[in-house]
Amino acid sequence: MEFDAVVVGGSFAGLSAALQLARARRQVAVIDSGLRRNRFAQVSHGFLAQDGRPPSEIHAEAKRQLLRYPAVRWLEGAAHAVRRSGKSFEVVTDQGAQRSRRIVLATGVADQLPDVPGLRERWGKSVFHCPYCHGYELRNGHIGVLAVGPVSIHQAMLLPDWGAVTLFLNDALTLDADQEQALAARGVRIERARVVRVAGRAAIQLEGQREVELDGIFTASLTQPASPLAEQLGCEFDHGPLGPFVKTGAQQETTVPGVFACGDLARAAGNIAVAVGDGAVAGSAAHRSLIFEP
Ligand SMILES: Cc1cc2nc3c(=O)[nH]c(=O)nc-3n(C[C@H](O)[C@H](O)[C@H](O)COP(=O)(O)OP(=O)(O)OC[C@H]3O[C@@H](n4cnc5c(N)ncnc54)[C@H](O)[C@@H]3O)c2cc1C
Predict the structure, then answer these.
(1) For 114-219, which CATH superfamily applies?
(2) Which residues pair with 225 in a beta bridge?
(3) Per residue in 95-104, pLDDT tens?
C-alpha cells in the first residue's frame, strides 16, 4: 500500500503531526526508534497542563490517544533510508520498504556533551542545558555553567535569574574585557581552573584538588540531527549557535517538495511545547499539500 504520509520520529513533534493527519482521515505511518531526547529526565517542565509530569507518561498518553485512530500504523524501529520514487517516496525500515506521498521528518537531535567524566551519567538529573525546563527547581541555589565555547557566555548571562552562577571556563572559552565586565554586572563568578570530573550530585572537581558543590550544572550541549534522512533527501540546513537544523518555511515545509520537518530537528533550540506546535503545523500542512499540490 501507499501511505498518504509517513512520519519519521514518534515523539512529541511526530505524534502531533500524525494526529492532524489521522484526524484528516488520511493513511499515516509513524516510524519510531524510541530514543526521545529527554529520556534521561525523570520530570518535564514548562509544557502547558503537563508541568512536572514524567516525559515518559506524557509521551505514552499521546501515543495511546493517537493509536485510537484506525488510519494510523505504528512501525517500531528505525527508518534507515529515504528516497524519492516518482511522485512518491520510499522509506526503508526494519519492516521493509514503505511508500508514501508525503514525508514528515520529526527525528530530533543528538546531544554532544563536553567530555568530562561524570557529566553524562548526570544528564537530565543534575546536569541540564535548558534553564526554562530545569532552572526553577534549583530554588535559587548555586549553579555552575560548564563552558563549551562562546555560546556559554549567553547561558551564563541568562542563568543568574535562577541562582548564583559560577562560570567554569575549563579551557573551552577565553573572555575579553567587555565580556568579563558584562558577566560581572550579572554577578557571575569566573573559575579558570581545569575541570577534572563531576562527582556527588553536582560537585565540580577542579585541578589542584578543589571541589565546588553546586545545586545544578548547565552546559550548552551541541547538537546534530539524530538521523541522516534530511540530508539524504537533499533538504537545506540552517546553522544556529548549537548546530545545524533543517530549514523550513512557515508551514514547516523543507526546501524539498513533499517533505516537512518539525520539532528539534527544524529549530535552533526547542522544547516540547514548540515541538508539539511545529508538529501540528507540519501535519496539517502535509495534509493540505495532498489536496492543493497533488
Ligand atoms: C535532558 C533533557 C531534559 C529536557 N527537559 C525538558 C523539559 O523539561 N521540558 C521541555 O519542554 N523540553 C525538555 N527537553 C527538550 C525536549 O526533550 C525536546 O525539545 C523534545 O523531545 C523534542 O521533541 P522531538 O519530537 O522534536 O524530538 P525527540 O523527542 O528527540 O524525538 C525524536 C524521535 O525520533 C526518533 N528517531 C530518530 N531517528 C529515527 C529514525 N531514523 N527512524 C525512526 N525514528 C527515529 C527517536 O527515536 C525519537 O523517538 C529536554 C531535553 C533534554 C536533553
Answers:
(1) FAD/NAD(P)-binding domain (3.50.50.60)
(2) 109
(3) 899 999 999 9
